[in-house]
Amino acid sequence: MPGEKAVETTGGAAAEKAPEQQSGSGSAADGAAPAKKAAARKPPVKRSPAKGTAAGEAPAKKASARKAPAKKAPAKKAPAKKAPAERVAAGKAATAAKAVVRKPESRTALFRRARRIDRELAEIYPYAHPELDFVDPFQLIVATVLSAQTTDLRVNQTTPGLFAKYPTPEDLAAADPEEVEEILRPTGFFRAKTKSVIGLSKALVEEFGGEVPGRLEDLVKLPGVGRKTAFVVLGNAFGRPGITVDTHFQRLVRRWQWTEQTEPDKIEAEIATLFPKSEWTMLSHHVIFHGRRICHARKPACGACPLAPLCPAYGEGETDPEKAKKLLKYEKGGFPGQRLNPPQSYLDAGGRPAPPLGAG
Ligand code: SF4
Question: Which spans does this entry mark as compositional bias, Basic residues (predicted)?
Fold first, then answer.
């Protein structure tokens, strides 16, 4: 769902073993506390490739420098200014050449760390929820289709008008496409989205008696519905667990080194082995909430992040607590959320509803 892009996920086949449970440690639940907490803690031990790279690079540099003491430019030049990718490659090569520099994390350690991060996230975001407004499966599936290439906020600001005029699949199936296009214009790609939601509604009417089916295999046959959309619907409207691998989820699980996979299907399959099936839906919400509020794509707010002590990628973003605090979004930064009608738990935690379209 995704405020960003729809990304497909794979089904929930994977193992759900839970080798061990650890008790969670407390984390602040508001924007200010994390900043203090993160600031108070020592920078975490880095397990990331970045460290391996840096560690691997030093010997390479030294070796080059020693080799060409008298000759000027060439010897110095090579190691001095490498692009990050080159540094990684150089670091890896040097590391490989020198044999093992650091022990890879064991499977058990990865399990424990992943579970611990999710427990922390559950404390930071006890109100995590799907960020699309909906009252029934039909509204959720339509809203999820509309959320491709735009924010959940924009979808939430647009769907009240759509559902007021077309409250059922039958209504939307019989709609004049041009009228629907006008309503959907603010969500972008409105012609294609109009086609999708009308086609989707027709399929619901013709093949499923006007009801959204509750099975993955049926959902993915609907126009405009991929596995990610299907899992959003199953997890949030039918209570059937699923992992939603959107752009935030992909970025964060790689930063945390839960997986090295880059394809959504493979990411989903690997992450599914780290958590019990019953936790998949909430895990997805936790990770996506964190990606939207703190661990942003371009400027992660590491200095205000309660996960800093557990994160191999700490330092990828701003580490100064005051500067990092300014990067926080939504309720963590004191701003409105994405839903016009958020759950009460969100309001109780100080979250604010999003404004309607045109109001801000
Ligand atoms: S990269 Fe930075 S913001 Fe993201 S989880 Fe790690 S410490 Fe937090």
Answer: 38-49, 63-80
Residue 280 belongs to a domain with what CATH number? 1.10.340.30
Closest atom, ligand 1, to C-alpha of 314: 7
Atom of ligand 1 nearest to the CA of 312: 6
Q: Are 233 and 140 in contact (CB under 8 A)?
A: yes
Place of tokens 């309001």: 347
| Distance of CA 311 from the midpoint of ligand 1 (Å) | 6
Q: What is the pLDDT of residues 229-252, one digit of tens each?
A: 999 999 999 999 999 999 999 999
> Are 338 and 214 in a shared domain?
yes
Domain tally, the chain:
2
Ligand 1 centroid from CA 284, angstroms: 17
Same domain, 325 and 338: yes
Say if 116 falls within a structural domain: no
Which residue bears the tokens 């009417």? Answer: 205
Q: Are residues 80 and 162 in the same domain?
A: no
pTM value is 0.73
pLDDT tens string 13-24: 333 333 333 333
CA distance 58 to 80: 11
284 assigned binding-site residue: no
User: What is the rounded (10 degree) CA torsion for 12, 18, 21, 26?
Assistant: -10
Domain range holding 164?
Answer: 1-13+26-47+128-360
Q: Do the domain assignments include residue 122?
A: no
